[in-house]
């Protein structure tokens, strides 16, 4: 069992050895320096939290896997946001033509539909869009897969779109 000083020293060595390389890897996926640093920092935090069970001979590979998976999850999250952002932009353009009573009616409809969503779906939608959590973060919290999170989001957005279209 490592004492705190030894643990800190080993972690520092691991950090110095891998930080720049992992930032480069993340940048290849994300093309954003700050996001890349955030992903790498999150990966090191995950390693620190599991350091007592970490096998040092596979630590480099483990870190690379964490960074790659977090980047892929972030890219998937961006893709979904862009996909549905476009449909909301279109509705924003239509909204400019609406008077305040129509907007209020649609907002009330959206709120009503959200309240009718299953608790888990409503929670996931809230965490994703209001709290800006990634699918992976939500999946980890709820102990489900990122694909399950994606299905909840897709379901919720479909229901919301249909409700708004019906109310127009």
TrEMBL record:
<dbReference type="Pfam" id="PF08281">
    <property type="entry name" value="Sigma70_r4_2"/>
</dbReference>
<dbReference type="Pfam" id="PF04542">
    <property type="entry name" value="Sigma70_r2"/>
</dbReference>
<dbReference type="InterPro" id="IPR007627">
    <property type="entry name" value="RNA_pol_sigma70_r2"/>
</dbReference>
<dbReference type="InterPro" id="IPR036388">
    <property type="entry name" value="WH-like_DNA-bd_sf"/>
</dbReference>
<dbReference type="InterPro" id="IPR013325">
    <property type="entry name" value="RNA_pol_sigma_r2"/>
</dbReference>
<protein>
    <submittedName>
        <fullName>RNA polymerase sigma-70 factor</fullName>
    </submittedName>
</protein>
<dbReference type="InterPro" id="IPR013249">
    <property type="entry name" value="RNA_pol_sigma70_r4_t2"/>
</dbReference>
<keyword id="KW-0805">Transcription regulation</keyword>
<comment type="similarity">
    <text>Belongs to the sigma-70 factor family. ECF subfamily.</text>
</comment>
<dbReference type="InterPro" id="IPR014284">
    <property type="entry name" value="RNA_pol_sigma-70_dom"/>
</dbReference>
<dbReference type="InterPro" id="IPR013324">
    <property type="entry name" value="RNA_pol_sigma_r3/r4-like"/>
</dbReference>
<feature type="domain" description="RNA polymerase sigma-70 region 2">
    <location>
        <begin position="14"/>
        <end position="78"/>
    </location>
</feature>
<dbReference type="InterPro" id="IPR014327">
    <property type="entry name" value="RNA_pol_sigma70_bacteroid"/>
</dbReference>
<feature type="domain" description="RNA polymerase sigma factor 70 region 4 type 2">
    <location>
        <begin position="108"/>
        <end position="158"/>
    </location>
</feature>
<dbReference type="InterPro" id="IPR039425">
    <property type="entry name" value="RNA_pol_sigma-70-like"/>
</dbReference>
<keyword id="KW-0731">Sigma factor</keyword>
<keyword id="KW-0804">Transcription</keyword>
């Amino acid at each position: 069992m490592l004492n705190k000083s030894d643990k800190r020293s080993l972690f520092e060595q691991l950090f110095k050895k891998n930080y720049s390389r992992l930032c480069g890897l993340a940048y290849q996926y994300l093309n954003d320096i700050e996001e890349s640093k955030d992903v790498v920092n999150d990966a090191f935090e995950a390693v620190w939290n599991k350091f007592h069970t970490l096998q040092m001979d596979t630590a480099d590979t483990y870190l690379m896997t964490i960074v790659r998976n977090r980047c892929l999850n972030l890219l998937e999250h961006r893709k979904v946001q862009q996909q549905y952002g476009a449909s909301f932009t279109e509705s924003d353009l239509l909204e400019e033509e609406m008077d305040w009573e129509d907007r209020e009616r649609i907002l009330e409809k959206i709120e009503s539909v959200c309240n009718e969503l299953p608790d888990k779906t409503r929670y996931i939608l809230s965490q994703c869009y209001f709290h800006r959590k990634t699918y992976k973060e939500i999946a980890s919290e709820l102990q489900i897969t990122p694909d399950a999170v994606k299905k909840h989001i897709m379901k919720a957005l479909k229901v919301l779109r249909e409700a708004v279209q019906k109310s127009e």
